[in-house]
Amino acid sequence: MTETPNYTAAFEELKSIVSEMESGAISIDELSDKLKRATELIKICNAKLTATEGDVKTILKELEQ
C-alpha cells in the first residue's frame, strides 16, 4: 500500500492531473484511473484543510481566554 501524501504533494499531483486533462494529454484508457486518483487527492486535501481549520479555531479560542 502506498503512503498517503501530505497536503503539498497531494495538491501538486492534483494540479498535474488537471493540467493533463486540460491539455488533452490523458488518453481515454487512462481517464478513469486519473479521475479516481484526483478524487482521492481532493479528499486528502479537504481532510487536511478541515483539520487545519479546526486547529486554528482552537488556537484562536485559547488566545481569547
Give a quick rundown of the structure.
It is built from two helices and no strands. The protein is mainly α and 65 residues long.
Q: What are the salient characteristics of this protein?
A:
65 residues; mainly alpha; 2 helices; elongated
Report on the structure:
With 65 residues, the chain is mainly α. The chain has one domain (7-64). Helices cover 83% and strands 0% of the residues. The chain is built from two helices and no strands. The protein has helices at 7-23, 28-64. Helix 1 (7-23) packs antiparallel against helix 2 (28-64). 3% of the residues are buried. The mean pLDDT is 94.
Topology summary:
Elements: H1 7-23, H2 28-64
Helix pairs in contact: 1-2
Overall form:
elongated
As a whole number of angstroms, the C-alpha radius of gyration is: 16 Å
Largest sheet: none
Summarize the amount of helix as a percent range.
over 70%
